[in-house]
Task: structure prediction
Amino acid sequence: MNTELDRVDMLRYLSVVPLFIHLTDDERTRLVQGCSLNRFGRGEMVFRTNDVCDAFHVVIVGQIKLYVSSPSGQEKVIEIIGPGHSFAEAIMFLEIPYFLNVQALCDTLLMRISKNIVFEEIARDSKFALRMLASISRRLHGLVQDVEGYALHSGAQRLIGFLLRGVENSEVVPERRLTVSLHVSKATIASRLSLTPEYFSRVLHELEADQLIEIDKREIRILDVKRLAQYGAS
Result:
């Protein structure tokens, strides 16, 4: 059961999460009636395939991974989601069980928003429905970009794209340096990029041998952003 402190926290979270940032105080007060906070330890399952989907979730603190497993136990990471981002909205609207697994990658705090309260707010305000559609559309666009990357880019290009994510073309200047921290395991990132862990490590070491990066445990120092971007385009 949520305490009054949890309710105050959830109202605060709703005011800063991008999906809800434009809500009025009255709208957030209504929405929080269907919200709850849930804490998960590293490796703990949030839900599994075929569990009932009666809510969607927002990551407040920590990271989770969405993945599917083959009958043999092989795992494919679909997405890694961090603070401020939501997941499972589309499944909730389909009104079917979850068709993937979600696991906490570290100590994680999630806010659960129930399907019933979302449907009530949509019936009350069409603008809320448009915001939900925009969120789902962004997720779909990301998945289409993933498919494009798998089909048109080599494994090395996908890895370099991951290292340079968030760097705009206008920011690619000669000899610019950048440090990328790997907050999850290399095996998890490799699965997200549809690479084997062995190939992922081999490309990293090739880039290091070419003096494009330096590897320090979970930190990747990019020694020249422009050269690395050009390497990925070659």
